[in-house]
Design brief:
The complex is a heterodimer of chains A (341) and B (215). With 341 residues, chain A is mainly α. Chain A is built from 19 helices and three strands. Chain A has helices at residues 5-11, 15-30, 38-47, 65-75, 85-106, 111-125, 128-138, 145-154, 164-170, 179-182, 186-197, 200-205, 207-213, 232-246, 252-274, 278-281, 293-308, 316-322, 329-339; strands spanning 56-58, 224-225, 230-231. In chain A, strand 2 (224-225) and strand 3 (230-231) form a beta hairpin. By secondary structure, chain B is α+β, with helices and mostly antiparallel strands. Chain B has helices at residues 15-23, 31-36, 43-48, 52-60, 101-110, and strands spanning 2-11, 28-29, 79-83, 86-90, 95-99, 124-133, 146-147, 165-169, 171-172, 177-186, 190-199. The chains are: A mainly alpha (341), B alpha+beta (215).
Chain lengths: 341, 215
C-alpha cells in the first residue's frame, strides 16, 4: 500500500520519481560488471598485452577474435577483488535499503523483500542494524540478539589483543566488520537494544541485563543517533519501553508514544528543511533519508509488542491527532511493516 | 600530482561516435567545444573561462543563465564533470557513507531528461579514464583537473559533494580513456552491458609515476 495522499501532498514529491529511484537502485544492486572488469583492463594496459591490433575493440563481441584473445589473456591473470568484501557488501546493503524505502513509499511489490535483502547484508557485515530490520519485517528475533545484548553490557570498548582469542570463542558470529568496531557505535547499540527488547524470550532470559540497562551510560547519553541525530538517551528510553511492552506492561505505552512522537517530530523537521533544496528534493535525492528506518523499525516492533500483549495497538488516527504529515512518513511505513501490508 | 581514475557518464551516443572519441586523440570534449562544431574551437576564449567563478557555476549552478551570452552556463562551460566517488561523512550521527563513481556515472548516463526526473531511463555510456589532479586548487591550469570532492581545498560548500566530482578542463585526451561500456536498462529492474569498448591506444599512467629505472 502506498503512502496516503495526505502524506504525498506534504512531501511534495512525484511518486513517479520515487518509482524511478526504486527501479534504478534495484538494477544497480543486481548489476554484474562485465568481465574483464576495469581492474583487469588496467593491468592489461600496464603490461602492454592489449596494445596490438585494431585501435578499438568491443570485448563483448563474441565474433571478434581479437576480443576473444584479450578476454582470454585477462581471464588467465590472477585477479584480486576490485573492492574489499565489506565495502561492496556495505554498498549493496545501503542500495537495497534505499530501494526498499522507495518501493514501500509507492506501494510497489518487493519492498519488504528488498528490506530483507538489506538486512541480510548488514548481518553479513556484522551490523546489528540488519537484525533490527529483519525483526521489523518478520517479527522474528535474530539469533544474535541475546549474545549481543549481553556483550553490550559486559564488553568494554578497549579490549587487549590477548583477549581476542577468548573473544572469538565467545562471539563466533562476528561479521566482516568486527564486533570490536561495531559494539562501540551508538547506532548499532540502539539496534541491539531494540531487537532484543522486542523478543519476550530474550527479555525473560536476560531480566537482570535489561534492568541494568537503565543505568548504562547510554541512558543519559546525548550522542546523536539515527537520521535525525536525536540523543541516544531518547532511543534508549524507547528501547526499554519496548521491553516493558513485550512483557505486557501497559503502563509503558504512554511513555513510548511520547518517545516516538519526539523522534517523529525531529524527522518531520528534517524533511521540511530538506525540501528547501528543491533541486535534490524533487529528484528524491535529499541528504536526509526520506524514511528513518530506525524509527520505522521502532514503530513496527512496538506495534507488534502491543498486539501480542493484547494492549491497544498504534493507529494512524492516533498519530494523525498529534503529529503533522511529514512527521508521520516513517510511522506510516512502520505500521505497514508491522501489519504486512 | 595525483593520477586519479574516474568515471564519466554520457548519454546514448551512437557506437561509432564513442569509438571516434576513443580514437581521435581529442577524446572527451567540454560542452563549449562540442557546441562550436563544425566551427573551430576558440581555445583562448575557453581558457579565459577557467576561473573560480566559472568552476562554481559549473559545479553548483549548471543551469545559470549567463546575462552576457543569454545562454545557460552548461552550453558554454569549458569544464567536464567526472566522478571518482567519495566518502560522505555525517558527523552528527558518526556515520560514513560511500558513493561509488560507477553508480554516479551510471545514474547520470541513463537519465532521459535531467530537468524531468520522472521521465524514466534510457541506455547510456560509462567511460573510465584518468586525469592528473593537483594537490592544490589550480583552476586556470588546463592540464590538471580540480578535485571538487577534496574538502581541504577550502572551496565553498557544495551540495553535490556526494557525487565525488573531479572537474577536468577543455578535454580528456583519448590516450587517457581506457574504456567505454554501454549499459542498457531492461525490464524487471536490470541493466545489461551491451558493449565494452577497449581503447588500445590508451597510455597507462605508469609513465607519469615518480619512479625511474636505474641505468
Amino acid at each position: 500500500m502506498s503512502l496516503p495522499d495526505e502524506l504525498w501532498q506534504a512531501l511534495n514529491l512525484d511518486p513517479a520519481v520515487v518509482a524511478d529511484r526504486a527501479s534504478f537502485l534495484a538494477a544497480y544492486a543486481g548489476l554484474e560488471e562485465p568481465r574483464p572488469n576495469v581492474g583487469d583492463l588496467i593491468e592489461l594496459a600496464a603490461s602492454g598485452q592489449a596494445s596490438d591490433g585494431k585501435p578499438v575493440v568491443d570485448l563483448l563481441d563474441d565474433d571478434d577474435h581479437e576480443a576473444r584473445a584479450i578476454r582470454e589473456r585477462a581471464g588467465s591473470r590472477d585477479r584480486g577483488e576490485p573492492m574489499a568484501p565489506w565495502a561492496r557488501t556495505g554498498e549493496l546493503a545501503s542500495t537495497w535499503s534505499e530501494c526498499a524505502v522507495a518501493r514501500l513509499m509507492i506501494g510497489a511489490a518487493g519492498g519488504q523483500d528488498a528490506l530483507l535483502r538489506a538486512a541480510r547484508m548488514y548481518q553479513t557485515l556484522g551490523l546489528p542494524f540488519g537484525s533490527l530490520l529483519y525483526a521489523a519485517v518478520t517479527g522474528a528475533s535474530a539469533r544474535t540478539a541475546a549474545w549481543q545484548l549481553a556483550a553490550l553490557v559486559a564488553d568494554r570498548p578497549q579490549r587487549t589483543v590477548a583477549d581476542q582469542e577468548q573473544f572469538q570463542d565467545r562471539y563466533p558470529e562476528e561479521g566482516l566488520i568486527g564486533w570490536q568496531h561495531v559494539s562501540g557505535a551508538p547506532t548499532q547499540q540502539i539496534s541491539i537494544l531494540l531487537t532484543a527488547a522486542a523478543d519476550p524470550e530474550v527479555i525473560e532470559q536476560n531480566a537482570q541485563v535489561i534492568a541494568d540497562l537503565q543505568y548504562a551510560p547510554q541512558a543519559s547519553g546525548i550522542t546523536p543517533v539515527g537520521t535525525t541525530a536525536q540523543p541516544i538517551a531518547l532511543w534508549w528510553a524507547a528501547g526499554l519501553g519496548l521491553a516493558a511492552l513485550s512483557r505486557g506492561d501497559g503502563d509503558a505505552r504512554a511513555g513510548v508514544l511520547d518517545q516516538i512522537t519526539e523522534l517523529a517530530q525531529a524527522h518531520g523537521r528534517q524533511l521540511r528543511y530538506a525540501q528547501l533544496d528543491t533541486y535534490h528534493w524533487r529528484r528524491a535525492q535529499a541528504q536526509v533519508d526520506l524514511v528513518d528506518l530506525h524509527l520505522a523499525g521502532l514503530v513496527a516492533l512496538t506495534d507488534r509488542a502491543l498486539r501480542n500483549s493484547r494492549l491497544e495497538a498504534w493507529s494512524e488516527d492516533e498519530f494523525q491527532a498529534i503529529l503533522p504529515p511529514l512527521a508521520r512518513v516513517s510511522l506510516n511505513l512502520g505500521l505497514e511493516l508491522s501489519r504486512g501490508q | 600530482m595525483i593520477i586519479q581514475w574516474c568515471c564519466k557518464g554520457i548519454r546514448d551516443l551512437p557506437e561509432r561516435d564513442v569509438r571516434q572519441m576513443l580514437m581521435n586523440r581529442v577524446g572527451l570534449r567540454c560542452r563549449y567545444w562540442i557546441g562550436c562544431d563544425p566551427n573551430p574551437f576558440p581555445v583562448a576564449d575557453a581558457m579565459e573561462g577557467l576561473t573560480e567563478q566559472g568552476l562554481d557555476l559549473h559545479v553548483n549552478h549548471y543551469d545559470y543563465q549567463d546575462p552576457a551570452t543569454g545562454r545557460p552556463y552548461y552550453e558554454t562551460t569549458p569544464f567536464i564533470s567526472l566522478s571518482a566517488g567519495c566518502v560522505d561523512r555525517n558527523t552528527t550521527v558518526h556515520t560514513n557513507k560511500t558513493y561509488r563513481a560507477f553508480q554516479t556515472a551510471l545514474d547520470f548516463a541513463t537519465i532521459i531528461d535531467h530537468s524531468q526526473p520522472a521521465a524514466g531511463r534510457r541506455p547510456g555510456w560509462v567511460l573510465v579514464c584518468y586525469v592528473l589532479v593537483s594537490v592544490n586548487p589550480a583552476v586556470s591550469i588546463p592540464s590538471v583537473a580540480e578535485e571538487i570532492r577534496e574538502l581541504n581545498h577550502n572551496r565553498a560548500y557544495s551540495q553535490w559533494y556526494w557525487q565525488g566530482e573531479i572537474t577536468a578542463k577543455i578535454n580528456v585526451p583519448s590516450a587517457q580513456i581506457l574504456s567505454a561500456a554501454r549499459w542498457e536498462p531492461r525490464p524487471a529492474n536490470t541493466y545489461v552491458a551491451t558493449n565494452l569498448l577497449l581503447n588500445r591506444r590508451f597510455v597507462h599512467p605508469a609513465a607519469l609515476l615518480d619512479e625511474r629505472n636505474m641505468l
